[in-house]
## 1
Amino acid sequence: MSDHPSTYVPKTGFEKWLDSRLPIVRLAYDSFVDYPTPKNLNYWWTFGGILSVCLAIQIITGIILAMHYTPHVDYAFNSVERIMRDVNYGWLIRYVHANGASMFFFAVYIHMLRGLYYGSYKAPREVLWILGCIIFFLMIATAFMGYVLPWGQMSFHGAVVITNLIGSIPLIGGPILTWLQGGFAVDQATLNRFFSLHYLLPFVIAGVVILHIWALHVAGQNNPAGVEIKSKEDTVAFTPYATVKDGVAIIVFLFLFSVFVFFMPNALGHADNYIPANPLVTPAHIVPEWYLLPFYAILRAIPDKFGGVIAMFGSIAVIFALPWLDTSKVKSMRYRPVMRWFFVIFVIVCLGLGWCGAQLPDAQVIPGLPSFTLFDGQLNSYLWLTRLFTIYYFVFFLLIMPWIGLKEEPLPVPASISEAVLAEHNKKKG
Amino acid sequence: MKSLQTLGRKAWIKAAATVMAASLTLGAGSALAAGGALHAHEPKEGFSSSGVLGTYDQAQLQRGYKVYREVCAACHSMKLISFRNLGEKDGPFYDPKYKNPNENPVVKQIASEFEVPTIDSETGDVITRKATTSDAFPSPFANPEAAAASNGGAVPPDLSVITKARHGGASYVYSLLTGYKAPPAGLKIAEGQHYNPYFPGDLSSAWSGDHKHVPAGGVLAMAPPLSAGQVTFDDGRESTLSNQAADVAAFLEWAGEPKAVLRKKTGVAVLAYLLLFFGLTYASYRMVWRGKH
Ligand code: HEM
């Protein structure tokens, strides 16, 4: 916290010398050793540390992959297979990187839902939240371009579908599309620039993460009770308390990660991406990676292409505006008896959108159920289920958030973190 | 918000449970609706490589290589596989005496039986030379156009990673090779096409029967490549259709993931290490936080 005075005492001569020139050890000590964290943080708070590990893993494995990868339409596919066959432990590096993206998104979704549930976006953490949203947006861009690099069928046709969305923007869309693709189609120029950007963006993410953590250390961490730190009794030192707890969570996370990497490395991917890209053959069913499916579903829910693009970007934009959409005085949904049920439905709707994103829009949701045509599609179709979910998604942010915040009667909020901890302690004892 | 609150906690739980149950049934529904082809299955004896600790059966890989070489290689390339790969750890001809597969006499012998194109350094003419262990398997056709011309317009796909490029992997290859059937009456099959219930496709436009019961599967340009007795196995295994198909499917599985055995072994060690490390860290966590909760 900003008002927390530094307690770092340089011990060795070198540390003293350095401290009066560049107090970097002091910065690290104040941020990761002596930094006071709320003592009631639960395991949902370990995902920030997990995400840092994810970013480091992606950058390290990515740099090694780039040493062996060839960004050329004729060689990219084979160079990836060469990495898995002929580079020492190349199979490990590639599978860690590919599954790492999925694990990264898994963690960031939990991290964001944590923030949503406990009101971590509310004052004074608006900037912290927006920086997180920027990270998330950059992650999507990075993952999308990374998926193009192996130049399989899904890489290629996914890139065609997504870049062509830009072309649907009236007037300026066409020229922007050509500029983005580096030509009139997804081809060598596109692959080459996607490689360049896929290498660049993670470092931009790393930069924004530094700002994100800076903002965190100015505002202080939120906590499950959603009340601010009032006294020293409310906190414990980052090290060893938070470090050891984060450590436990990171190991469990790495365990899950390893199960995928070593025993089912292709389970989260799509078989078609092991077919070399062929512009003349379009796969029967083009789908993005699982973590982008909800947004893909929202895109396809709108009958008009440009409208779909707006809805898709809008679904990310509303997350940025969240601090000003929520009108509640209380942060944590622990004390928001009504809102929390809308939150549960929201989580189910997001999963539902992901499910719909993987289906063909015309397919029947309940096979054989008689249905009728509504507007432009059968009611008993994924198209309409997706629309239903999409409507809830936006209504949740734009109507429920502001409205319930004003109307709901929150439960009594504890006066301090210590009080909250004590109350829980007594409840457990019965 | 009195009205919402009076609705009470139970009602909300019920509503949420209903939504959850509905989404589960929806999931089940679409799983039934998906896929017009029969579900791929393993041979009766299974694949030794499946499962968490499964490894490749070397004798089977050798037989599978023979099937590939004598039958499939007439049409299908395997550009990502070099002769040396055959002698690498967990490969068909790996011999612990020859850690360097390029020195493995079996591998050297196999390579020397092939000719590969090269350039005569004196004249610049295209000539051929004996293949070496570092050469990739030669392709049956010079280019995709030539391949299509000899196969009724369809290009036989490269088989290097075929088990990763199809749902069902080796089971799919096995099911496809053994699954050819006479087309049901009412299904029109074009010249040069063959009906297979395991091949993903949509037959509704070729089907003149009841439109609610369109036959499963699709048609492909590959005639049934294997039949009983086609490849003679050196180890005396009976040359049934199923045995040949299982062996070549296992060989293709190895070719697609030659490091799979190493990967799984490494995985077991990594998980064991993480488990140990978890125990230690969790114990420290309990110690550090004692009295703080
Ligand atoms: C590369 C991705 C990210 C990394 C590495 C990262 C890292 C971190 C770390 C280390 C913390 C502190 C520990 C914790 O409270 O969990 C944190 C806190 C936070 N992050 Fe992130 N983050 C990322 C993405 C995001 C995203 C996408 C959002 C939301 C849109 C977000 C929102 C927040 C918020 C609101 C906090 C404050 C949490 C609180 O104290 O309540 N972060 N982040």
Note: Chain B is about 40% helix and 5% strand.
## 2
Amino acid sequence: MRRAALWLVPGGAVLWALAGADIEAARIIGAGARLADFLGRMVPPDLSVWRDMMTGLAETLRIAVLGTLFAVVLSAGLGALASETLAPAAVWRPVRAVLAVIRAIPLILVAMLMVGAVGLGPLPGILAVTFHATGMLAKFYAEAIDNVSAAPVAALESAGATRAQRLRFGVWPQMAPVVLRDTVFRFELNLRESLILGIVGAGGIGLHVQTYVRSFQYEKAATVTLAIIALVLVSEAVNTALQRRFS
Amino acid sequence: MSAAAFTLSRVSHRFDDATVAATALCDVTLSVAPGEVVALIGPSGAGKSTLLALLDGRLRDWRGRARVLGAPLSPDAPPARAHRADVGFVFQDFALIDRQSVYQNVMNGRLGRTPAWRSLWGRFGERDHMAVAAALHDTGLADLAARRADQLSGGQRQRVAIARCLAQEPRLILADEPISNLDPAHAAKLLALITGEARKRGIAVMFSSHQPELAQRFADRVVGLGDGEILFDRPAGRLSDDDIARLYYGRARGGAGLRVVGQ
Ligand SMILES: Nc1ncnc2c1ncn2[C@@H]1O[C@H](COP(=O)(O)OP(=O)(O)O)[C@@H](O)[C@H]1O
Ligand SMILES: [Mg+2]
């Protein structure tokens, strides 16, 4: 009975989606040719844009770096407030609820609001990434704090360690790998997500992609796309290497 | 200088829970002299860990009176730093920092002895490094100093816990089942080390154990604890089979000391 209901929900969802999706076979069949044409116009990539492209990529990187940095600072404080072990329930419950709401707002929406608030350029991008990333990072930090096992810390206290010594030699060594891993992970997400911020005027490479595509300069768009793919692959490789280091 | 390493008079403790209240200690009166080595034996749940934690200043809300190394113990707050540094403890579950090296784990025993502000930069004194080196040597861990604690066997981890306590250069050693994970050869060797160290420096030791023979071999005195009460307190070698039988099998109520509230 329960099981049947469990299958009914996804089944119903698929039927509902199919009924309204307006999927026309003709359009799909025709898509192949158009895509081929689109891709064909992307080769050879026009490398003359590399200077603009590097400026755009640098700006995106800057947004990701500074957005991550400010999110780390905010999350250190908010993470402590969201921790069940450090904060009373009257504090960590509402803080966690607010963080959940922040996580639920898409970055692009935050960026649009920030552009409205502070104008165009990388500044709204940095602010948006900071806000958006804090929702996740503060939650992760709180969990890192709550997962510290108390017994080894109590052992240090028993040996005469001061409060500061217990944090330095008992709490931090247990938290550090988790905190570093989460931070690097969040940086990679920030980099990926901030690639599109330029589309709403919040700085970075996204603006160039949009400009080139809108003006049918596909050879230039191709160069930028390849560079973005390269950047993401590099950051993923670095991330993987660091993750291994922090195990 | 006070006459005793520690004295307990009519010390009691209950762990209060929603449905059951466990009487962990019941009117325990006990006095141990400096330099004396005492074994605490008794079945699981007898209250050994609770008694040792109380002496270490980590138990709250107990009743009765206790003096340790000349200072009264408070049921409300942990002892001062210097006092905590003077009382060494070997933890039953080792309580090591998994990601730290064996060396740093043992060095953690020095935290109460070394200037706190300097240690925060990871800097320890000559004396600290010497104490750690000696403790590692004595426990046979010198070759494992650089190994991470989570890459050790249970027996090796137990030896790190003992080394950390020795490096602390305590004036009283409390050890909660310090040899439970060791093979017989290592068990005897490390009990000899702990008690030998204590005898050499004239400090008192109380260790709990499940092995009455080893307890008698290395202790001056054996205290039997059952259901939170002291059942006997005898010089080593004077333990009768009857004592053991009464301790481990004797009580009609069962070993856990659990009483349902309201009964
Ligand atoms: N943290 C705790 N909360 C509730 N009951 C506890 C706790 N620690 C120990 N007890 C109970 O107190 C009694 C004595 O436990 P313990 O001192 O650990 O015994 P031992 O070390 O001799 O095995 C047991 O009945 C145990 O269940
Ligand atoms: Mg125990």
Note: Residues 6-249 of chain B form a domain with the Rossmann fold fold (CATH 3.40.50.300).
